[in-house]
């Protein structure tokens, strides 16, 4: 049970710097998810917290203790690995009890801790099997059990679900969330899957190229992305981004193909004569007659549908505006043929405007 | 022309049968048969002189033979254990080397590339009590002022042979164990570190089980090698002094080719085969068990 502080943490391999001075405070009992594309430094950061990678600069503290020079075993952490990292020559029971056996705890205590963990994760039927005889989901539960048994200060998860199939992944997501509610421990979780990040996190930390781009609750990063990277990375399908220019009154935007839309009223007049990126999610562009109840501000735009993806309750419509692909949603869908021209409504209140140069949000 | 009535499969396999018979079956049967005769190389007719189990009975009653047998087991036990420990240590060290490892691995294999006869000569020179390197070094360092009779003293002679054996073959273990170390998955090692293992505990509980199969493969190979040890001993001590380094195969060769009692020698050979079979079966069982534990068995 502890908080984690990263102060200006740097990692380089030779002359290549992969993590550039990260600052982060994780509160006690908080569930923090690092998310980002591969190579963004999220796993490296996690491994530095675990002590599996030396840090090249800065300071990491767990609780009130600076752990820069401590080996992993002295940090009182548990880690769940992507490939489960179970000990193949030990039974599930031995895997679970290993950390306590190493710590030379009495057998009765080990048995009790193993029984507890096994009950939490429903592992009782498998205790005498070896990892080789378990399915992927069961192995991942054993890995989690091994982490619980230790009663660590922090749990570290390194892409624990990426080797599981989609259905199992959804199940395990629920289990991890339940686990967090049951054992009440600080969790730092790494994933490249924004759905996992959104569903699990108290706080999402979005990383790119060794920098933190944004951090906040799932809703914050979804509704108020600070830049186009976060806007496209969080949320599915990704946000539509169209290049355009604000006119000299700052109240209208001319998109690249000459289509005019109004500047959202909260921004009207603030940015005149400026190259901008106009962003809106598929949920906020819908064909007329198939929309959510609209806010006060909306704009209509014609678009030819090039491709459809029926999802049942809704259909994704693909089209192009000014040569850029746009995805729209259609509620209560009817069959739409590629080539059909529809009129869409864009909800301006939910639109985002970014600076075309810096790609940062304008507000 | 009458066609042969032999079935086709037999005709097709006939060349293989003939070759197998010529190189394996006939020598095997002949040597086994001759172990029941008083066959002497100097009197070829004696191969017809059937004496039943008399050769075997003689060997069972021959203390000298059983001493040689026991000495072979002793050499095997000591040499294999030493080679295993040293090879393990060497492999662990080389595994830590990050620069020039390939070169090191090649250099490590040099001793295996020498002919055992030459290794025997080399160590005969090194351990020579007058002009040998070993005594020279010990005396120069002031550790002793006497000439230690390495190859003449009963106990030291065996030690010298084991030394030469270990020098030549530790790299077999080192290479195989190194291959095993390369194959150890990194994840469980990292998990163990996080789980609170000290480096020693990580080695003991994680690394060692993973390399056990490789150790057993090396033990199986080397046990066959040492069980038929002949060349180094022949050169260094020729079984002496006073038979203190006589092994099964040196005695067997002496009996067969010097004394020309080939029937008796063949009987020895068949008894000693059990030694080789025993160790091979033993180590393969161990190998399979250790693979099973890792879930690698079929």
From TrEMBL, chain A:
GO terms for biological process: carbohydrate transport. Residues 4-234 form the ABC transporter domain. SUPFAM superfamilies: MOP-like (SSF50331), P-loop containing nucleoside triphosphate hydrolases (SSF52540). It is a peripheral membrane protein. PROSITE patterns: ABC_TRANSPORTER_1 (PS00211), ABC_TRANSPORTER_2 (PS50893). Keywords: ATP-binding, Nucleotide-binding, Transport. Its main location: membrane. Gene3D superfamilies: 2.40.50.100, Nucleic acid-binding proteins, P-loop containing nucleotide triphosphate hydrolases. InterPro entries: AAA+_ATPase, ABC_transporter-like_ATP-bd, ABC_transporter-like_CS, ABC_transpr_MalK-like, ABC_transpr_MalK/UgpC-like, Mo/tungstate-bd_C_term_dom, NA-bd_OB-fold, OB_MalK-like. GO terms for cellular component: ATP-binding cassette (ABC) transporter complex, substrate-binding subunit-containing. Coiled coil: none annotated. It is found in: Cell inner membrane. One of its GO terms (molecular function) is ATP hydrolysis activity. It holds the Pfam family TOBE_2. NCBIfam families: PRK11650.1 (NF008653). Belongs to the ABC transporter superfamily. This is Sugar ABC transporter ATPase. It comes from Ahrensia marina. The lineage of its organism: Bacteria, Pseudomonadati, Pseudomonadota, Alphaproteobacteria, Hyphomicrobiales.
UniProtKB/TrEMBL annotation, chain B:
Keywords: Cell membrane, Membrane, Transmembrane, Transmembrane helix, Transport. It is found in: Cell membrane. The keyword Transport applies. One of its GO terms (biological process) is transmembrane transport. It comes from the Bacteria. CDD domains: TM_PBP2 (cd06261). Residues 69-283 form the ABC transmembrane type-1 domain. One of its GO terms (cellular component) is plasma membrane. It is a multi-pass membrane protein. The chain crosses the membrane at residues 12-33, 73-94, 106-127, 156-184, 205-224, 267-284. Its main location: membrane. Coiled coil: none annotated. Belongs to the binding-protein-dependent transport system permease family. This is Sugar ABC transporter permease. The lineage of its organism: Bacteria, Pseudomonadati, Pseudomonadota, Alphaproteobacteria, Hyphomicrobiales.
């Amino acid at each position: 049970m502890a908080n984690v502080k990263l102060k200006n943490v740097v990692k380089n391999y030779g002359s290549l710097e992969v993590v550039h001075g990260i600052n982060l405070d994780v509160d006690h009992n908080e569930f923090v998810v690092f998310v980002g594309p591969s190579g963004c430094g999220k796993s490296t950061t996690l491994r530095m917290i675990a002590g599996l990678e030396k840090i090249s600069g800065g300071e990491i503290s767990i609780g009130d203790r600076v752990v820069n020079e401590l080996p992993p075993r002295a940090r009182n952490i548990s880690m769940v690995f992507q490939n489960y990292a179970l000990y193949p020559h030990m039974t599930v029971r031995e895997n679970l009890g290993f950390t306590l056996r190493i710590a030379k705890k009495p057998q009765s205590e080990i048995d009790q801790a193993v029984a507890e963990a096994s009950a939490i994760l429903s592992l009782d039927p498998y205790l005498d099997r070896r990892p080789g005889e378990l399915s992927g989901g069961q192995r991942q539960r054993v890995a989690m059990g091994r982490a619980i048994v230790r009663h660590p200060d922090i749990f570290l998860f390194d892409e624990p679900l990426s080797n599981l199939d989609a259905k199992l992944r959804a199940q395990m997501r629920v289990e991890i969330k339940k686990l967090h509610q049951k054992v009440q421990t600080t969790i730092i979780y790494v994933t490249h899957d924004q759905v996992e990040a959104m569903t699990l996190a108290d706080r999402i930390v979005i990383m790119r190229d060794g920098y933190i781009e944004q951090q906040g609750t799932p809703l914050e990063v979804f509704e108020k992305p600070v830049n186009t990277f976060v806007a496209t990375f969080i949320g599915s399908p990704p946000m539509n981004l169209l290049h355009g220019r604000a006119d000299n009154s700052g109240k209208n935007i001319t998109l690249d193909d000459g289509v005019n839309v109004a500047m959202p009223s909260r921004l009207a007049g603030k940015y005149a004569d400026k190259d901008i990126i106009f962003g809106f999610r598929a949920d906020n562009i819908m064909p007329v007659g198939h929309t959510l109840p609209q806010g006060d501000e909306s704009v209509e735009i014609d678009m030819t549908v090039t491709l459809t993806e029926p999802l049942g309750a809704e259909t994704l419509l693909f089209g192009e505006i000014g040569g850029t692909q746009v995805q729209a949603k259609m509620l209560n869908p009817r069959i739409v043929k590629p080539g059909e021209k529809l009129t869409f409504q864009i909800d301006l209140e939910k639109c985002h405007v970014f600076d075309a140069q810096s790609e940062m949000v304008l507000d | 022309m009458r066609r042969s009535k032999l079935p086709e499969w037999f005709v097709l396999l006939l060349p293989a049968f003939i070759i197998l018979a010529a190189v394996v079956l006939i020598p095997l049967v002949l040597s086994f048969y001759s172990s029941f005769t008083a066959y002497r190389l100097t009197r070829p007719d004696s191969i017809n002189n059937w004496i039943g189990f008399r050769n075997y009975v003689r060997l069972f009653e021959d203390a000298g033979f059983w001493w040689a047998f026991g000495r072979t087991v002793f050499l095997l036990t000591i040499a294999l254990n030493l080679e295993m420990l040293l090879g393990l240590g060497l492999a662990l060290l080389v595994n830590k080397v990050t620069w020039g490892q390939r070169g090191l691995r090649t250099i490590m294999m040099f001793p295996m590339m020498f002919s055992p006869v030459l290794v025997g000569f080399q160590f005969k020179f090194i351990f020579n009590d007058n002009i040998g390197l070993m005594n020279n070094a010990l005396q120069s360092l002031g550790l002793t002022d006497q000439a230690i009779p390495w190859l003449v003293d009963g106990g030291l002679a065996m030690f010298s042979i084991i030394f030469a054996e270990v020098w030549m073959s530790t790299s077999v273990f080192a290479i195989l164990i190194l291959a095993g170390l390369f194959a150890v998955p990194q994840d469980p090692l990292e998990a163990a570190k996080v789980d609170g293992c000290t480096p020693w505990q990580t080695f003991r509980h994680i690394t060692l089980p993973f390399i056990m199969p490789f150790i057993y493969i090396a033990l199986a190979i080397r046990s066959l090698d040492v069980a038929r040890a002949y060349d180094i001993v022949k050169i260094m001590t020729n079984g002496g002094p006073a038979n203190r380094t006589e092994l099964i195969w040196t005695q067997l060769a002496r009996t067969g080719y010097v004394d020309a009692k080939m029937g008796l020698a063949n009987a020895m050979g068949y008894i000693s085969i059990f030694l080789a079979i025993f160790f091979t079966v033993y180590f393969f069982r161990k190998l399979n068990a250790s693979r099973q534990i890792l879930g690698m068995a079929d």
